[in-house]
Amino acid sequence: MLQPGREKCGRKNTGKGTEEMTKKGDRRYDVAVFDLDGTLLDTTEGVLSAVEYAIEKMGYHKLSRERLMEFLGPPIQDSFAAAYGISGPILQDIATIFRDRYKGEDLLKARPYEGIYELCGGLLARGIVPAVATYKREDYALTILEHFGFGQYMKSMHGSDHENRLKKQDIIRMCVAEAGVSDLSRAVMIGDTLHDAAGAEKLGVDFIAVTYGFGFHKPADLDGVPNVGIAEEPLDILKMV
Predict the structure, then answer these.
(1) Region of residue 76 (left: phi > 0; alpha: psi -120 to 50; beta: else)
(2) Burial of 150 (0-12, 13-18, 19+ CB in 10 A)
(3) In this predicted structure, which of 72-81, 159-168, 220-229 has the lowest mean pLDDT?
(4) How much is the CA Rg of the chain, to the nearest whole Å?
(5) Which residue, 27, 37, 68, 84, shows the most beta carbons closer than 10 Å to its own?
(6) DSSP E strand stretches across the chain
């Protein structure tokens, strides 16, 4: 089931057929940019396995399951910095340990969310270009997306660089540009975390939140977060675009 957006960014989600929404048929958007972890795929098993490996290799104290879940979504350097109060070059060393383990052992330990392929097909049928903008390193993102069959749907797929220089809005921008969309009001970001929402807001595109992933779990979690809709399951998104 879908929930109305608590705050709106861009066009108002009134449910009425405005001229802007209908001038290109029945669709509001020309490109829909998805986050990966917690939006397309449940990557919990693989990510946490690699996180625990990095923690052990660094000799750090173990974290609770609840604390480990906070590693799902943000850049790995940010998560370790927050969990252990560390900064500087060591974060890049930890990221390398994590990524070597993740790529070699844990990358494909994931599962698609129910209804996600039907959603991607439905977007294409409406003439909406699906794309992926993720904080997962780009080479890893491409591998896992192709493995799970998303390559047949996605026009553009981009991830982070190894040094974590690219921000979410930069990655979203690349996807929108590759989709051939110049009017940002015709683009929407779809994701499960504040990182996704912030990236969309900084770029100036609409945001649809999902509550079936890692970050947002209920509509109240979106209080104060600009959005045009809240999806409790993937197929709800078709009703918002």
Answers:
(1) alpha
(2) buried
(3) 159-168
(4) 18
(5) 37
(6) 2-3, 31-34, 41-42, 111-112, 129-137, 156-160, 187-191, 206-210, 229-231
d(CA 222, CA 60): 33
Give φ, ψ of 207 to 5 degrees. Answer: -135, 130
The CATH code of the domain at 44-106 is 1.10.150.240
Domain chopping of the chain, boundaries: 2-42+111-239, 44-106
Give the Cα separation of 84 and 167 in Å (integer): 22
CA distance 60 to 52: 10
More confident residue, 137 or 240: 240
Alpha carbons within 13 A on the beta-carbon side of 126: 24
Q: Which pLDDT value is given to residue 24?
A: 54
Separation of alpha carbons 46 and 43, rounded Å:
6
Cα separation, 143 vs 103, in Å, equals 9
Q: Residue 20 is which amino acid? A: E
Return the structure tokens found at 98.
């994590």
SS3 state at 176: helix
The correct answer on CATH 3.40.50.1000 for the domain covering 2-42+111-239 is yes
The SS3 of residue 193 is coil
Q: What is the mean pLDDT of residues 163-177?
A: 93
pTM: 0.84
